[in-house]
C-alpha cells in the first residue's frame, strides 16, 4: 500500500483552526500502519463528543463548533477519516472500502480510549458512525444525527445523490473547497475554501475523496448492505437518547430524519431540531446553532454520576 501524508505546512495559518494536532496509528488491513489525526479540545474530564465529518471535508468543518462545546464543559474530539485532513491517505482507490473505513475509525476510537461518547455525525460521518453505534451500542451515550443516514441499498438513493455521484466521478478537477462551498447556503471566503483544499496538494492525494461516493450502498446487493442491515437491527433496539438535527435546505438527506425517528426508539422522546438557513454542510452555515443544540441535548439527557465506575 502506498501511503501519502500531507505536509504540515499545508495546514499553517488556516482560519479559526489553531487546534493542537493529535495522532494515533491504526492497522491498514494490509500489514501497514496508518496515522490518523484528531482534534481533542475542552476539559479532559468532560463528557466526550465525537465529531465525525463526511465527504470531502475534514475536522476543519467543526472549527466553529468545537469552542462552543468546550465552553459548555464538553470534551470535543474531531477525527479526520483516513484519506482526509491530516490523516494518512492511501494512494489507490482500491485501498478504500466501506468496511475498511469502519474498521479504521473504530480502531482510532479504541486507540484514543473513548467511552460513553456522544456521536455527532454528518454525511459519511453517519454512514460510518451509525454503523458503529449499531455494532457497539454500549459505547455510545447518545447520538446526534445531522444530515446523514445509514443506507442499505434497499431504498432509492434519490436523484440528488445520484447526480452528485455522477459529478464526483466525471469532473476532471475534484476540488474539495469548491464542492463544500456548493453545499452551503452561505458563500465561503477564499481562505475557508483553501482550508478544505489544504489536505490535497494534488490529485494523488484525492483517491479516498474520489472513491467515497462509490462506496455508498445504492443497490440491495452492495457489499456493505448486509453489515448495514445488521446494524439497523441493533439500531431498532437502541433506546439511548437520539436526536435528529437536520438543516432545512439539504437536497441530499432531506427526509432521512423521518426514517431515523420512526425506526430508532431512542429518538421517540425528542422533538427533532431544524437548523434553519443551512445547506448540506450545516456545520459551515450554522455551526454555532448546531453546537448549541448538541450541548443543550447533552445537558438535558445527562445521567447522574456518569463518571462513576
Summarize the main sheet. 8 strands, mixed
Q: Strand portion, in percent?
A: 15-25%
Rg over C-alpha atoms, rounded to the nearest angstrom: 18 Å
**Number of DSSP helices?**
10
In CATH, the homologous superfamily goes by the name Alpha/Beta hydrolase fold, catalytic domain
Helix-strand sequence: EEEEHEEHEHEHHHHHEHEH
Mean pLDDT, all residues: 95
Instruction: List low-confidence stretches.
Output: none
Concise synopsis of the structure shown:
With 309 residues, this protein is an alpha/beta fold.
Q: What labels describe this entry?
A:
309 residues, alpha/beta, Rossmann fold, 8-stranded mixed sheet, two-stranded antiparallel sheet, 35% helix, globular
Account of the protein in words:
There is one protein chain. With 309 residues, this protein is of the alpha/beta class. The chain contains ten helices and ten strands. The chain has one domain (12-300): 3-Layer(aba) Sandwich (Rossmann fold). It has helices spanning 66-71, 98-112, 124-135, 159-170, 176-182, 190-197, 207-215, 225-235, 256-263, 282-301; strands at residues 3-4, 22-27, 33-41, 48-52, 75-79, 89-90, 117-122, 140-146, 242-247, 273-275. Helix 3 packs across helix 8 (225-235) and helix 4 packs antiparallel against helix 7 (207-215).
Which helices and strands, and how do they pair?
Blueprint: E1 3-4, E2 22-27, E3 33-41, E4 48-52, H1 66-71, E5 75-79, E6 89-90, H2 98-112, E7 117-122, H3 124-135, E8 140-146, H4 159-170, H5 176-182, H6 190-197, H7 207-215, H8 225-235, E9 242-247, H9 256-263, E10 273-275, H10 282-301
Parallel strand pairs: 4-5, 4-7, 7-8, 8-9, 9-10
Antiparallel strand pairs: 1-6, 2-3, 3-5
Helix pairs in contact: 2-3, 3-8, 4-7, 5-6
Amino acid at each position: 500500500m502506498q501511503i501519502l501524508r500531507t505536509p504540515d505546512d499545508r495546514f499553517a495559518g488556516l482560519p479559526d483552526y489553531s487546534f493542537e494536532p493529535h495522532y494515533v496509528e491504526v492497522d491498514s488491513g494490509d500489514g501497514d500502519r496508518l496515522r490518523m489525526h484528531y482534534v481533542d479540545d475542552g476539559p479532559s474530564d468532560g463528557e466526550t463528543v465525537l465529531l465525525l465529518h463526511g465527504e470531502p471535508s475534514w475536522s476543519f468543518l467543526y472549527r466553529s463548533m468545537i469552542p462552543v462545546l468546550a465552553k459548555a464543559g464538553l470534551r470535543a474530539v474531531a477525527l479526520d477519516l483516513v484519506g482526509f485532513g491530516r490523516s494518512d491517505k492511501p494512494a489507490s482507490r482500491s485501498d478504500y472500502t466501506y468496511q475498511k473505513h469502519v474498521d479504521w475509525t473504530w480502531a482510532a476510537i479504541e486507540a484514543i480510549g473513548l467511552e460513553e461518547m456522544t456521536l455527532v455525525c454528518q454525511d459519511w460521518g453517519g454512514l460510518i458512525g451509525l454503523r458503529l453505534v449499531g455494532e457497539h451500542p454500549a459505547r455510545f451515550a447518545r447520538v446526534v444525527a445531522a444530515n446523514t443516514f445509514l443506507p442499505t441499498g434497499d431504498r432509492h438513493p434519490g436523484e440528488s445523490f445520484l447526480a452528485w455521484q455522477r459529478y464526483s466521478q466525471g469532473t476532471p478537477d475534484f476540488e474539495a473547497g469548491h464542492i463544500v462551498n456548493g453545499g452551503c447556503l452561505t458563500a465561503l471566503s477564499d481562505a475557508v475554501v483553501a482550508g478544505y483544499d489544504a489536505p490535497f496538494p494534488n490529485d494523488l492525494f484525492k483517491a479516498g475523496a474520489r472513491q467515497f461516493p462509490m462506496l455508498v450502498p445504492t443497490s440491495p446487493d452492495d457489499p456493505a448492505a448486509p453489515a448495514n442491515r445488521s446494524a439497523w437491527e441493533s439500531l431498532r433496539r437502541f433506546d439511548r437518547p437520539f436526536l435528529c438535527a437536520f438543516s432545512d435546505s439539504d437536497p441530499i438527506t432531506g427526509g432521512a430524519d423521518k426514517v431515523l425517528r420512526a425506526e430508532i426508539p431512542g429518538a421517540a422522546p425528542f422533538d427533532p431540531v431544524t437548523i434553519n438557513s443551512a445547506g448540506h454542510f450545516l456545520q459551515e452555515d450554522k455551526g454555532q446553532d448546531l453546537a448549541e443544540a448538541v450541548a443543550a441535548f447533552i445537558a438535558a439527557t445527562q445521567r447522574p454520576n456518569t463518571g462513576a465506575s
